[in-house]
Design a protein that fits this description.
With about 140 residues, the chain is of the alpha+beta class. It has one domain (about 10-140). The protein is about 20% helix and about 25% strand. The chain contains 3 helices and 7 strands.
Length: about 140
């Protein structure tokens, strides 16, 4: 379960899938549009708040493990990854979930650990174990 309640005063305390960085997130439903605020060191990223439910729905539709594919805004994401979906014209917001130009990327880095903390996805860092998913992937939980 997630540490924190997801408010600005008590944000969710999270760690990236590789376990290399700690960060916080909280919901800001009063923002226009409603936002998910991600604080990584001194950098603030903002995503559409609907990303939580939308990403869970998309993962459920995939029916299998999905690569995270985290990438900065200026880099092309690998097709079929969480990152690529978070920028696709085919997703429910019709493009970028990131709201802050110049800081719209890394959707595949920061959203899946939140879904896992909320009990809505599973991350793995398995490498080459027979019968396991590859490293750095996410799968939905129903």
């Amino acid at each position: 379960m997630a540490e924190g309640s997801g408010t600005a005063a008590d944000p969710w305390l999270l760690t990236t899938a590789p376990g290399s960085s700690a960060y916080t997130m909280y919901a800001d439903p009063e923002a226009n549009p409603p936002a998910l605020v991600c604080q990584v060191g001194s950098t603030t990223l903002r995503y559409h708040l609907s990303a939580i439910d939308d990403l869970h729905q998309w993962l459920t539709e995939q029916g299998d493990w999905v690569d995270l594919g985290a990438a900065d805004e200026k880099k092309e994401p690998v097709p079929g990854t969480v990152e690529a979906w978070g920028r696709s014209a085919e997703n429910p917001v019709g493009g970028w979930y990131g709201l802050r130009s110049g800081y719209r990327g890394r959707f595949g880095m920061y959203l899946p650990p939140l879904l896992e903390a909320l009990g809505r996805a599973e991350l793995t860092t398995n490498r080459g174990t027979t019968g396991s998913a590859p490293s750095g992937v996410v799968v939905w939980l129903t």
